[in-house]
Structure formats: structure tokens, C-alpha cells
Amino acid sequence: MAANDKQEGGAHYKGAPVEHWDFVIMHDIPYMEAQIIKYMMRWRKKNGIEDLRKARHFVDKLIEVELAAEVEADPRRKQPSLDETRKALHGSDEDVNTYMNPDSGEPRGKGYVDQG
């Protein structure tokens, strides 16, 4: 007996034009997306709203993963810290410290000359 001829634990995939796993294999769908499709295919026949919430949970995770990948691929997408911005504007750490007032932490201005 072929795996598609039986279903363990219910009939929530039966009657679909294609089995979930066959669809995933045919289209080479990655794991996270396959899970979303799985819950969307079965929600009316198995767990109702709970399956929709599970699908949404996978969508939320997929968004997190994709956003992190975009930042890693293009560091310009990441919001730089104040120190990173200062370094980018002024060069090295030494240059940044030269232009910062040690008492207030505020910029002194580019024309500042240390009198000490």
C-alpha cells in the first residue's frame, strides 16, 4: 500500500486535489512555507482557528528570518548605533573622542582644538 493510500490520524487531507506532501515535493517548497501551506490546507477539516493561528505563527517566524537575512545581506538596512554613526562620520574611535566633550558627551564641533 502506498503512503498516499492511507492517512494516519484523520481524513483532513483526503479529498484535496493533491496531497500536501506531494505538492511540497513537486514545487520544492522550503520547510517554513510548507508548514504554512499545511495548516492552510487543513484548517477547515481539522483544528479550525487553531490551525490558522499556527499558520500565522509560521508566517511571523518566516518574516523574522527573512528580515534578518536582508539585514545580513545588506548591512545598510540595519539602523546603526550612535557610536557606529559617529565612526562613519569622523573615522576612527580616536577621531570620535577628539570631537566629543568628555563632560557632557555632546559633540564639540569639528573646529575644536584641545587646549590641554
Q: Report the end-to-end length measured between terminal Cα atoms.
A: 88 Å
The helix/strand class is mainly alpha
- Mean pLDDT, to the nearest integer, reads 76
Number of strands: 0
Low-pLDDT segments, ≥5 res: none
Report the portion of residues in β strands. Answer: under 5%
Radius of gyration: 27 Å
Q: Helical element count?
A: 5
Helix amount = 40-55%
Shape: elongated
Largest sheet: none
Give, in order, the helices and strands. Answer: HHHHH
Number of domains: 1
What is the topology?
Layout: H1 20-26, H2 31-42, H3 49-73, H4 82-90, H5 93-98
Helix pairs in contact: 2-3
Structure, described:
Helix content is 51%, strand content 0%. Helix 2 runs antiparallel to helix 3. The protein is elongated and about 75 Å long. The longest helix has 25 residues, at 49-73. The model has no long low-confidence stretch (mean pLDDT 76). The chain is an all-alpha fold. The chain has one domain (17-102). It starts with 19 loop residues before the first helix and ends in an 18-residue tail after the last helix. It has five helices and no strands.
